[in-house]
Amino acid sequence: MLRLRTIAVVVSDEKRAASWYREKLGMKLEDAFPHWHTVATSGSDVQLHLCPDAPLEPGNSGIAFTAKDCKKEEAALRKRGARIVEPTTKADWGTYFTFADPDGNEFWVVEE
Predict the structure, then answer these.
(1) Cα dist from 46 to 41, 51, 63, 84, whole Å
(2) Residue ranges of the domains in the chain?
(3) Sheet holding 47-51: strands in order across?
(4) Alpha-carbon distance 20 to 83, whole Å?
(5) CATH, range 6-111
(6) Bridge partners of residue 9, in order along the sequence
(7) What is the pTM of this model?
(8) Less CB within 10 Å around the terminal CB: N or C of the chain?
(9) How far apart are CA 81 and CA 78, in angstroms?
(10) Residue range 59-103, pLDDT digits in tens
């Protein structure tokens, strides 16, 4: 059966983006080759492939992370300087917030 391994995120500079993901989100740099910089959260099998050669596509990336407590995670990201696009919100389907990276890619955080 196929398993998800990487998700492409369009960025303007993969080295700068990799630094941002490490510093702001605490991700680990998995690979750093020309056109193949990947980062991942601790213990994850899925990596973000930071793609520098496509036109920027700012806005909703469709990528979601999970957290046990959205308000707490949002506060931690704010403290580290991440830009929160939509603060923690309770919807009928769940609790979430969104944040953006420096290139305008927006990501969801959904409460477990």
Answers:
(1) 8, 15, 11, 23
(2) 6-111
(3) 6-10, 47-51, 36-40, 28-33
(4) 12
(5) 3.10.180.10
(6) 50
(7) 0.71
(8) N
(9) 5
(10) 888 788 989 999 999 999 999 999 999 999 999 989 999 999 998
